[in-house]
Amino acid sequence: xxxxxxxxxxxxTQIVQIFSTYADGTQRLIQTLQHHxxxxxxxxxxxxxx
Length: 50
Hints:
By secondary structure, this protein is an all-alpha fold. It contains 1 helix and no strands. It has one helix at residues 9-44. The longest helix has 36 residues, at 9-44.
């Protein structure tokens, strides 16, 4: 027996937009983490309260 998946193209378009939004947010988070990591590696962690 062959399995069949059916969907509405409008629904798929909406799903693609949702995934794209999450991907953009994830990319911004990665860039922010890289920026802060680089600052810490250059010595920003030193100082009062470190």
